[in-house]
Amino acid sequence: MEPAESERPRPAGRLPWGLAAYAASAPALYAALRLGMAGAPDGAGLPAAFALAAPALVAILPLARASAHGGAAPAALARGATVLALLASAIGAVAAATGGFGIGGGLALAVLLTSFGLLALALQCLARALAAPPAAAQALASAVALLLATTFFWIDPLLELARARPELRASLVRVAVDGNPGLVASANLLRVDLLKHRALYGRVSDLGAYYAYSYSPWTEVALMHTGIALVLALLAAGAEAARRLRRGRRGA
Fold this sequence. Notes:
By secondary structure, the protein is mainly α. The protein has one domain (19-251). It has helices spanning 17-37, 45-58, 60-66, 73-97, 102-129, 134-149, 151-161, 166-178, 181-190, 207-210, 218-251. Helix 1 (17-37) runs parallel beside helix 6 (134-149), helix 5 (102-129) runs antiparallel to helix 9 (181-190) and helix 7 runs antiparallel to helix 8 (166-178). It is globular and about 60 Å long.
């Protein structure tokens, strides 16, 4: 019986286009923010840039690892989660060792990044369970992760469109603030509100200048990411089981 497309091994040496685009975007984000924050008088420029870039960077290798081979979606999730745990721990250790975060802050950053990475991995897992090709599933999860990590770049036009709908606008503000793990990490762990920092304030986004908002505790955000990831993983497991059942019936 011909294997499903999502279960066929990816040819060796073939780089998924989603990984290529995502890997090109994340370092560019880091470079732009690093240059904008260099020499900041509050001394938080480099740690804040690190916190803001880390969520975009943390999903690259885990998502690539999860899509590197064919197989069931849960197995892909397990492969990616292993790399994610190692990478998030390494980033947390670097943050703790280079100042600004401290040991507790580095550990908190690692937990927050792990929860964010699990969200992206679970989304990719669900897409694969729904028979999406590995590269397409990876591109989708990468795009969602990158959008969440850069909410300040695209939220302003949506806020303008929602000017006449205060409830919708308040929801968009909440997504832009708490949906971005870099902003949450910087506000909670460094006590730096990047939306009011000179690197973003009035240059990249008007969110910090014209809208009322507050940051949720990083623990709540991490639990939210983990909860959504769990729901997506359960949906992926159900879709995988249903697909196997259909194949079994066809083969009977």
